[in-house]
Amino acid sequence: MKEFKYTLTDPEGIHARPAGELVKKAKEFESAVTISKDGKSADAKRLFALMGLAVKQGQEVVVSAEGPDEDAAIEAMSEFMKANL
Amino acid sequence: MKTYEGKSVFGGVAIGKVLVYKKGEQQVKRQRVTDTQAELERFENARTEAVEQLKALYAKAVKEVGEASAAIFEIHQMMLEDLDYLDSIHNMIQTQEVNAEYAVATTSDNFAMMFSSMDDAYMKERAADVKDVSERILAVLSGGVKSTVATDEPSIIVADDLAPSETVQLDKDKVLAFVTVHGSSNSHTAILARTMGIPALIGTPVDLESVDGKTAVVDGYSGTFYVDPDEETRKVMLEKQKKDKEQKELLQTLKGKENVTLDGKKVMIYANIGNIKDLAMVLQNDAGGIGLFRSEFIYLEHDDYPTEEEQFKVYRAVAETMAGKRVIIRTLDIGADKQAAYFNMDHEENPALGYRAIRICLTREDIFKTQLRAIFRASAFGKISVMYPMIISVDEVKKIKRIVEEVKAELTSQQIAFGEVEQGIMIETPAAVMVSEALAKEVDFFSIGTNDLTQYTLAIDRQNPKLEEFYDPHHPAVLNMIRMTVENAHKAGIWAGICGELGADPELTKFFLSIGVDELSVSPGRVLALRKTVLETDVDKEREEQLKTWL
To answer: Which CATH fold topology does A2-84 show?
Structure first.
């Protein structure tokens, strides 16, 4: 399993639109991608669960991936978060 | 006549018949099914159909209100593909042997409840989205198309609340205005109404039953909804509507035109913005660039110093959105009337004359450098200029330029890209005006901040309401200061603009053109009106008269 930490800089947090984009990105990979905040975690391929985390600006999340393409998944997620969130 | 007060989300005046829109309440009954496999298939077919409808709505919305506002329908499609949502429905059909309608309605309620119980205002609103998409499936299941407003006559749509899909499905030619009992300015309906450009009120406590079919007036400027207006109100509102319409039509014809006077003098008309949210207005009103980007909001919205990365993201977004048009970012102008707690500033007897703006930046280089790095990095993504507020001396400008050189050297050694950045200063102190000849040799442009320049020239505190009658921005002392600044800029071969409120003062436009002001930066809504005046002015003919009138 691979993981990284990321602190949200987007003033609006993970709101609907980026959540949708994030789900699309996660779905490109076979590995399970999980996003956790304060002990709560959500499957990054599930839109409602992800929005339910209500991640806001300045909060830290842990993004982890587990599966055959976990390296690529982590790299892609990290790039996505930096560019969009 | 009955009068209701609501919250306006978009201006304009509408007069017409009220059409109360009631949701086609889908009565869902729980029924037992024996063939759960067939029921699952029924659900899947309905879902596919709903997704198709949303795709069509998305395309319609992109065309009518733009991609950003249309994105919600893409999110709606994704909601209908969400695994948790689908699992819940599938499970209910299979294990409880219930009809698809019941499974969808129950799941919808559960998810909506999850959102409405969140403590975040934005997320609370998303409960409406869940219900909206679920109702779409229910409508397909029941064989009907989701209820839409059917009317032949253009009407004022009054409803409890409107879902985004309901708003966009309305035939735009048949809608004069929206009035809703609920809804927030955060809701998609409000955003869509704004992009569609029709008057809309939310939070209006209307009794739906009593207003249907009646004649009414929506005043989107005051937020008032008049039902059965009396003759007097009707007359006043008709007049207001006529003026509003003329203004809007006139301005539309000015879009895309160059800002050039009758005798061929060109002037740049830019927009002032104080938040990234204002960008839409900038584009809508056809501003040639951003003449003043007040970077303070980034600092005021944070509980701690915003990082380089946070700032970079904002500046980059603005640069990219403006796509090659000039964006002038004013560095931190905090202090005086704008305070952020984490700066821990001492109480001052005289804050307007105190520790503020560039004075903070020059004593706290760490804060200044972080901002400059973010600005320079963003310059790789568009045409960015930077300007410094509250300058009083050539020495300050030299210090700033030394810091800028250090920042550029750092970025170069770190192999971080940046573009050409023009550097200018705000002329807003009498001191800067008096030494403007020397200052002009050090910078690429001047931008005159008339609010502060007036306050400092006339020695009048802008914050003191008692002094209002003495505060006169038309004072010849102020106007002479402006003229002197422009002359000294031109002597050194640089341009000079005005970014204070005075720039949008229609009485003074001809005067500014007469003294050779090169740029006027005003709030986005004033851009086109200003363009109109420019197009009607003959500077050569009018100059003498203008100078005589004002100086």
So the answer is: Histidine-containing Protein; Chain: A; (3.30.1340)
